[in-house]
Design brief:
Keywords: Coiled coil, DNA-binding, Nucleus, Oxidoreductase. By secondary structure, the protein is α+β, with helices and mostly antiparallel strands. It is built from 34 helices and 28 strands. The strands form 9 sheets. The protein has a 6-stranded mixed beta sheet with strand order 11-23-24-25-22-26, with helices on both faces. It has a 5-stranded parallel beta sheet with strand order 15-6-5-19-28.
Length: 1215
Amino acid sequence: MGTNSRIRTGQVSGLGKGPVKGPGDSNSRRSTRSSLAASTPGRPLPLKPLSPAVPVADRQPAPPPAPRIDPESSSEDIAPEIIVWTEAMDAMSLDSSDGSLTPVTDDALTPPPPTPPTLPLLDEPAPESDQEPDQELDQEPGQEPGQEPDQEPDREPDQKPDRELDRDPDQAEQKLEQHLDQRLDHDLNADRDQDQDRNPGHGRDQNLNQGRQQDLNLEPKQEHEEDHNTKQAFLSVSSLSAVSAVSDQSELSPLASPSLSSKATTPMDIDSLKDVYVPVVRLTQPADTPRRRYDVRPKVSVPPDLPLSEYAMQCITAAESSRLNPYSLHQEEYLILRDHISHAQVTTYLNIRNGTLRLWIRNPQIAVTREEAVGCAKDVRWFDVANVCFDWLVRRGYINFGCVEIRSSRKQTQKDQPVDGKRKTVVVIGAGMAGLGCARQLEALFMQYAKKFREMGEQPPRVVVLEGRNRIGGRVYSRAFTTKPGRTTDSFQGKRCTAEMGGMIITGFDRGNPLNIIVRGQLGLPYRPLRPDTTLYDYNGKPVDLERDQLVEKLYNDCLDRVSEYKFKQPTSKLIEGNRDLIDEGKDSSSETYKTIRQIEESTAAQPHAPPVSEQNIAPQVNLVPVSSDRATGRIHTVPGTPGALRAVHKAKVMGWKIKQGISDEADLDIESATKEPSATLGSVTDHVIAQYKDIIDLNEQDYRLMNWHIANLEYSNATNYSQLSLQGWDIDAGNEWEGSHTMVVGGYQSVPRGIMHIPTPLNVRQKSSISKITYAHGSQTGPATVECEDGYKIDADYVVNSIPLGVLKHGSVKFEPPLPPWKSDAIERLGFGVLNKVILVYKEPFWEDDRDIFGVLRNPSNRRSLDQKDYASQRGRFFQWFNVSKTSGLPVLLALMAGDAGYDTEQTCNDDLVTEATAILRSVFGSKVPEPVETVVTRWASDKFARGSYSSAGPNMKADDYDTMARPVGNLFFAGEHTCGTHPATVHGAYISGLRAASDVLDAMLGPIDIPTPLIIPKETSLSLKRKAAENRDPTQSRLEAYEIELWDHIIAQVGLRPIMPTKPAMNAYIFYSKTHHEDARKKLEEGRRAGKGKASANEVRVMSAKMWRDTSPEQRKPFVDQAEEQKRLYTEAMARFKEQAADWDKKATELKAAYEKEHPCVPTTEELAAAAVMLAEAAVAAAAGVDGNNRRTRKRVESYAETEASDVEMTLS
């Protein structure tokens, strides 16, 4: 390995502000992998920058450039030149018999004697808490403002309380302080070398290796000596309540009142927390047990030269880019921390968590270390909290995922290398995005928790991936064309031209898509945004009138809006928020309270007529209504609102439709009867709505063709006819969409799973291993398992991750022993799994519009003049959507979609008939000049034995929790795949997220829950003791200088007063003044035509209406508000000018006063200070003569950053 150091910077590696540097450029500021990833000119590589780059810390050495492997040596049908090869691949051998890559390494380790684990507890909902509704969260019931709560010292769980403390408060305070000081002395004097996890060289901030003598070092937590078999034991809710009481006492919190109402023990409805993993909280040692020691200092990961507000903005953006709310706890965080922190302390925790995410987002090529995460805490009391936060983020795949190299935090000593330790095996079935993502994440987790396994007497487990095909990627498959381009552009030098057979579109990089990190931040793959402009052509080849198209699209969205009223209601979830103002400013909460979140909730629940714990702190229920559809993916865009709020006639008028003669303004639609039909589906009810609208407005044949084009687009996103979609669950993933442009990877989407497989080191993948039978341990997560292949190959495993597609599970070709339980098999049966096929045509020259990426064609029903929806079902999805993919495939290529019933028809239709039909459609649009294609590729995913279809959908009989049921493990058999991700089903990123979740489940089964010390936050008294001890040893020079500085500024302020305050910037947007003035007008307009029982318009609906009214206003109507905004700007400009003048005058006077004061009252060092300085200079001279860096600093070299620009898109010219 090389020795150059790397640091985390403002953006991820890739294109910088200067020219791109290839691997041959000698730029020590860029890591080797960055240079390799960015070696293609014109490659767009940016993560959206948070701010200008700021160096934060030294990094571990980067590996040197490694030789590329000959593309011809790969048996896979994918461009090998996309892959960034590492030197670890030199140690790989290809097993020709099974196609697998086998690492040639000696990783045998012998573990030390096992350490008995502690007893894990299931963090079931515990007794609810009590608090008066108007009572301050930081104040206990009955406590006066500013009064400190009664406290009780830490003690062993079985120790009786010292009642003398209750009788004599002064003596109690004295004993408490003595007790805490003794504990702190023990911690501070502990052996620094006992902690094996630290690595002083891993900090991102340049101050990480400085000031070691000032760090707070806490000893590592020891575990109870209990039998190993108790590791899987779980306690009931009542047991947890008892343990919680012990924990409360150890945290210096008052004992709970013995007389609580029944509400105080109301269990929280864990089942209602959808998409929430219920963590297991381990019972920890008493508080007197030596704690973990950290070789870092507070704020070491917070850039000192970055304004706090800008740092806070970066942290907030990082959380939003990681699928987390920067202002509130995740459901798991709430369950983990509710026994340990107060509401006021949530703010500080969120600042630590968001700061850790910032380190990761700003450079995901380098793994965040534990020390760096702990360095986000601004107080040593929060080090353990930061440590728990780091464990949670790592385990759940929010940081340190993807193609990132995990380096050992230290060199292993001889005693850490056991000879004959047990090594468990995890078998991952399937090498698609879910399987490879899970395997890569497991490898990273096992390396980061290697010490844990050694303490258990085991080696880190090995991971084996079994794949039935002779390639990887699963349903992400970029098939190479046989046709060669006449001329290769620079963008495609060395690349193969490919057709996207399966997944092809990345639906936005922003707001949390993990593919943002992998594609742009780690692999540096080139990609190209899809232009959203779409032209629709009628069946005769004429373009559809744009106004008519938009009018029908509004009607289509309104139909979906009305059926949305019958969707599954979103489950309630806890909303534990921090102080938004403090988080926005990057400041921690200074409030101190010893009542935890649980205690507050329980005390509140004990009040008369108070809600139980499960109903407290609930996030507002938000209904999402469709407003538009995405023509590139068929996905529905939603906004908060009330479904079906307006009467049909009124809504039709608002949309711009002409109402038929004789129709009353009060006329509405009757949907209820259609929804109560036993076989009601999305399709049957929507068809019913369209038929009723036909009686209100004039709909012609073209309107029906347009309407069914949009329906075909919806069927494209679900891979099935919409009559096979659940009325309640068809849009179950609403609200989880990413943001940003839709993009396609240049050269093939399959290079993403290929990169995951090979970087940073190749995974152990055995191809051509079709699975026939899986034997697993049904009742335990620790039993043996066996996976059998059709060729007779068998492998024993301790854990099995099944990422087999849902279609194969439905087909039943893989047997399970024992059979899957009914709750799992029933969910497999209820979920849908459909087919989307493609017809891909290659031409010598393009004959279509090169400035458009998408165009659509309306299809006629069997009866051309029919106004019956049933006649359109079979034809509407045939060649309805066309993609111009020439700039991503390298050849003149058109790709047509076969959706709905047409997808199934493609399986039975020969290629020649499909090409003939496609050519006829193209000639109707572009004329007779359209030639025959030179090459054709047709997909038939339903006939693929390893897929049996395209992706999952909401079957007609699905239940609201079926996706979550599919994600639940059965014994030691775990499940991954897009069909197990309820928030992002039927997507590539959803499959990858499910792999991260499955890896987390496996690690939890191996190691148990996250260790949480008690108390989690060191009481403030301990911190005060530290300050007193620090004051005793304080540098006299520093104290003298600080006192002199205070005297100096007191003198200046006494003479000229305080510095002028900068004026607050007022609102200067004309729309803001308009919306305030017309707020009630917008509300009244919404009330017009509102259906009975729909309640008042929500705030969001009022905002949307205000914006619409603003857009519709004339320039004359806008003028008063524009003038008002201009007046505000003028007043602000004048105020700023006065401020600058006054501030300059004040600064001038202050400078003069400062110089005069320093001249009259010089700050002279004492004799003791001069002597100490002479000693330090002598020591520095000796160190310099010996060639030692006195500050123990390494040379810091920055990683070159990059930023996305409009010119970063890869452009090419076809020959």
